[in-house]
Amino acid sequence: MRIIGGKFKGRRFTPPAKGWPTRPTTDFAKEGLCNVLMNRIDFEDIKALDLFGGSGSMSYEFISRGCTDMTYVDKFPACVRFVKATATTLKVEDQIRIFRRDVFRFLSKINEQFDLIFADAPYDLPKLDTIPDVVFEHNCLAEGGILIVEHDIKNDFSQHPRFIEARKYSSTIFSFFE
User: Fold this and answer.
1) In what order do the strands lie in the sheet with 96-100?
2) Distance between CA atoms of residues 117 and 133, nearest Å
3) Per CATH, is 27-177 categorized as 3.40.50.150?
4) CA 41 → CA 38, 75, 103, 108, 135, distances in Å?
5) How do residues 91-146 score in pLDDT, each as one tens digit?
């Protein structure tokens, strides 16, 4: 895992490989997404949520670019331990809240809104196509905020009423919702 930009640019972290339940966003896709976001938002002024956070790659990318109010959610204990250790290494424990929870339960109970929500669910997750509906049903996205769902070609969100665009980087697709 490498941080692409910002104050931690170039820092590398190696998640444990044995039994690791994640598929990290590629550097190529992450860089493309962050280039798009840098033209749309000021990371220093946002409250961000990383769903299915895995290795924490996107959380730390957003923090590196100035986000000081980051929330990370994943249900796998090894992922949560790794993200906590990385927060300590980077000395950003005060900028990230880390939750070991099922994402759908978390969304149903959270009483907050976020300016940026990034969801990188496993591509084979049976409920992946429901993520935008769940986020909007529970009013988790702030007015003017952006929801981004990472997926592959098996999912097409273009007919969703809140869909605004999709960006494709190799086999990775980011669908944007407002």
Assistant:
1) 96-100, 69-74, 47-51, 114-119, 141-151, 172-177, 163-169
2) 13
3) yes
4) 6, 28, 24, 26, 20
5) 999 999 999 999 999 999 999 999 999 999 988 888 999 999 999 999 999 999 99
